[in-house]
Amino acid sequence: MFRSTRVQSIQSIRPAAMLAFALAVVTVGGGAQRQPIESGRAIGQLVPSFYVRTVTGPLRNKSVCYVCRNGSRPCVMVLFRETPKALGKLLKAIDKVVDQNRAEGLKGFGVLISPEPGRAISRLQTMAFNQKVILPLSVATDVVGSPSCQNLHPQAEVTVVLYRRQKVVRRFGFRAKELDAAGTGRVLAGIKRLLDES
After folding, report:
1. How far is CA 27 from the centre of its chain?
2. pTM score
3. Which of 106, 85, 92, 94 is nearest to 179 (CA)?
4. Rounded to 5 degrees, what are φ and ψ at 170?
5. Is CATH 3.40.30.10 what the domain over 52-197 is classified as, yes or no?
6. What is the pLDDT along the chain (198 residues), one digit of tens a residue?
7. How far is CA 186 from the centre of its chain?
8. CA angle 72-80-91, nearest 5°?
9. Fewer CB near the last or first residue (10 Å), C or N of the chain?
10. What is the strand order of the sheet 63-64 is part of?
């Protein structure tokens, strides 16, 4: 009788323990996914120059190096592989900050990185029109994301690099669906610090 009761109690503990272990694994795994990713060149490194094909703005349809054009000015560079709605909201917020800080020389631009940039143009035009984005937008090949150029994290859907005198001051990397209002807030706070330190 005692042995039977003991076996039953052990058997009833076993599923509960397994469930607790599974929940712990899921929690730890979920937490690991939420760790920020490092995307873009390291802080203090030079931002390499690169050419893009402009899609919106006064230089539309031209081959331009915005890094070269903006020179030593404080700059917000947004590099992205997809065009989610949250990206449009971020770009509009950056538009506003750039417009308010033209006297300080703040510049900004966005680049859609794609293996087929020619086919990505219409997607970028649609986003710019629907979201009323004023920031100059452009397309470039995957080479721009490589370690030898902008060094984007493979999982980064959106990377924001803040730089001054062509040196990285801050960077923000977002996986798919990670860019939200809080993420946009962190980027805007980073831009404010960029201006304060300029």
Report:
1. 25
2. 0.82
3. 85
4. -150, 160
5. yes
6. 545 544 454 454 454 444 344 434 433 444 445 688 999 999 999 999 999 999 999 999 999 999 999 999 999 999 999 999 999 999 999 999 999 999 999 999 999 999 999 999 999 999 999 999 999 999 999 999 999 999 999 999 999 999 999 999 999 999 999 999 999 999 999 999 999 987
7. 11
8. 70
9. N
10. 63-64, 52-54, 137-140, 107-113, 75-80, 158-164, 167-174
Q: Write the single-letter amino acid at 189.
A: A
CA-CA distance, 65 to 50, in Å (whole number)?
5
Q: Is residue 173 left, alpha or beta, with left meaning phi > 0 and alpha meaning psi from -120 to 50? A: beta
Half-sphere exposure of 50 (CA within 13 A, CB side): 23
Query: Token pair 């803040």 is at which residue?
Result: 162
